[in-house]
Amino acid sequence: MKSSHKNEKEPEIITNKNQMRKWSRAMRSQGKTIGLVPTMGYLHEGHISLIKEAHKLTNLIVVSIYLNPGQFSPTEDLSTYPSDFDGDIQRLMAVPGGVDVVFHPYNLYDYGNSSVGGDSEVEKKGAVSCVEERGLGHETWVRVERLEKGMCGKSRPVFFRGVATVVTKLFNIVEPDVAVFGKKDYQQWRIIQRMVRDLDFSIEVIGSDIVRENDGLAMSSRNVHLSTEERKKALSINRSLSRAKFAAEKGQVNSGELRNMIIQEINEAGGRIDYAEIVDQETLEAVEEIKSPVVFCIAAWFGKVRLIDNMEINI
Amino acid sequence: MKSSHKNEKEPEIITNKNQMRKWSRAMRSQGKTIGLVPTMGYLHEGHISLIKEAHKLTNLIVVSIYLNPGQFSPTEDLSTYPSDFDGDIQRLMAVPGGVDVVFHPYNLYDYGNSSVGGDSEVEKKGAVSCVEERGLGHETWVRVERLEKGMCGKSRPVFFRGVATVVTKLFNIVEPDVAVFGKKDYQQWRIIQRMVRDLDFSIEVIGSDIVRENDGLAMSSRNVHLSTEERKKALSINRSLSRAKFAAEKGQVNSGELRNMIIQEINEAGGRIDYAEIVDQETLEAVEEIKSPVVFCIAAWFGKVRLIDNMEINI
Fold first, then answer.
1. Alpha carbon distance, N-terminus to C-terminus of chain A
2. For A199, which of B144, B169, B283 is closest by C-beta distance?
3. For chain B: N or C, fewer Cβ within 10 A?
4. What confidence tens digit (pLDDT) does each residue in B145-199 have?
5. What is the C-alpha separation between A163 and A181, in angstroms, rounded?
């Protein structure tokens, strides 16, 4: 992905919180608006589409690249989460209009007097848990209590707490006017929207449409871990969602029937369902019959890779 | 408390969130710094001392007056909490230097589609619980998980969640540079400090010393509910704290002995102890022996009034 077009803009890389805030405040005092695209790195076309969305809305773009330990439980894949910082910068330089700042902190948590602490230690991925039992380490968490409960919240109990908290931190550090999130992480997007409303952040939260590979697989940094065979099986997710959507639009409004269709198709392809739910687009509460806008949400395992995807149905 | 000195400054009263933020941003763009003093109204000399403290640090002062339903449980005294808005404004006008803005919102919570909602409804104190079981009402809470557990957190389980959440909201609306809290609410002060650190608010949190009546009773809006007799009994709190402090400074470092002294004195005066603890000033963990800076914290009932008080011991 290396390239050297003359019009490529090299982003300023900022690793320090205070420097980041200083930059934002300087820009705001010049009347500039700032868009934030929070990421965990290993950027793909899905991320790029978020940046393009932000470009429509603000003068300046900050992309944060931070693999947030606070949203992984000890048994999850923090240690194997893919990363490629240099490649990410190349990809960002290729985006039309570029990005102004990459905010890339080593660590955003205060570990107090605990033995985990220190930036160098924290950089060793996998060794980190920012949840301390005692002492002066990080202990403040933002919880969106209803929306965080279902779907991904069931199988990943600390996930949304970690997401809402790190996004709060990023909001307070970057102080953007707009933040763009992918609708692929539908529940996350709704949680951040609700959090922004409930905590009175002066930030517009934008949900950006899912970007898919040519074969229909929703783009995800985790796709890189799929074997060729698993990847082929994983297409059952998008296929089953499309079929269910088609059926719903043709008049099948019974959620149970639609869910069964989806589950059967993914199971037959060799996937292991974590959840397949048809929920209200705002409350994320399961519906029995589709009478208003809903979203079909799926999480399924293919080998050791857990994938999520969803499709909105606006009938 | 009416007065009409020529040099009194009338504060601007702002009730709308967006207007409040607009004011702050306009001031900041002029290079002014803003101090916030969050209150629930019924202002007394303790509050005034917080404003004086803020005056030392910032160009402009915002006092928020908002009786936060989110920090009261249904069984607590939201409905009888005293208020006197006109008197509060008079008191603020008498403060040297005055205050610039009184932020006095009717309601800071979004009740979604629930039946509780609506500003007018919310104004009826006592009818309000902002914790909804379902629907689109407020559901985001900030929790400082370790510090919120002990002392007042034990007998008031939703209290600090409500405090941390409303303070987050006020911080996001007012966007101050400095916020001043009273050390009378010691646990609250430490929780806000920790929250600001953990969530990367760019706000300096100041703890201001307890202000006492001439007879030693810590100033509190709730003191007005004490009968003459109860008030006399309540002096046992400050008296016992002072004695325990004196004993500690003379070499009594056993927390158990000191606690017993305090408990006995308050019990004998007719108070009912909620808690009497000797804790580390930062972690708020109970200590058995005083070896480093601690604080004696007390909550006790006199009749139907629950009072809190504390004293730092720096040995």
1. 41
2. B169
3. N
4. 999 999 999 999 899 999 999 999 999 999 999 999 999 999 999 999 999 999 9
5. 12
Residue whose token pair is 């639609």: A258
CA distance B17 to B24: 11
Mean pLDDT of B44-52: 97
Output the pLDDT for position A133: 54
- One-letter amino acid identity for B15? T
pLDDT one-digit tens code per residue, A32-53: 999 999 999 999 999 999 999 9
CATH superfamily of the B12-208 domain? HUPs (3.40.50.620)
ipTM: 0.92
Asked if B80 and B66 count as a contact pair (C-beta separation under 8 A), the reply is: no
Contacts of B172 in chain A (CB under 8 A): 199-202
Q: Between the CA of residue B157 and those of A117, B149, B188, B222, what are the distances in Å?
A: 31, 8, 13, 20
Q: How far apart are CA A114 and CA A128, in angstroms?
A: 12
| Dihedral angle over CA of B99, B15, B71, B279, nearest 10 | -20
Put simply, whether B65 touches A (Cβ < 8 Å) is no
- Reading phi first (left if > 0) and then psi (alpha if -120 to 50, else beta), residue B185 is in beta
Instruction: Give Cα A186 to chain centroid, integer Å.
Output: 9
DSSP-derived pairing of the beta strands A294-302 and A305-313: antiparallel
- Alpha-carbon gap, residue B209 to B183, rounded angstroms: 5
Q: Which residue has the tokens 């959840």?
A: A275
Q: Taking the domains of chain A in order of start, what are their residue ranges?
A: 12-208, 221-313
d(CA A63, CA A56): 15
Nearest by CB: A172 against B141, B164, B199: B199
C-alpha span between A142 and A198 (Å, rounded): 11
- In degrees, to the nearest 5, what angle opens at C-alpha B285 toward C-alphas B279 and B289? 55
**Whether the Cβ atoms of residue A50 and residue A76 lie closer than 8 Å to each other:** no
Q: Which tokens go with B151?
A: 């002392």
Residue range B101-150, pLDDT digits in tens: 999 999 999 988 654 444 444 443 333 344 555 678 999 999 999 999 99
Distance from CA of A198 to the nearest CA of B (A): 6
- The CATH class of the A221-313 domain is alpha beta
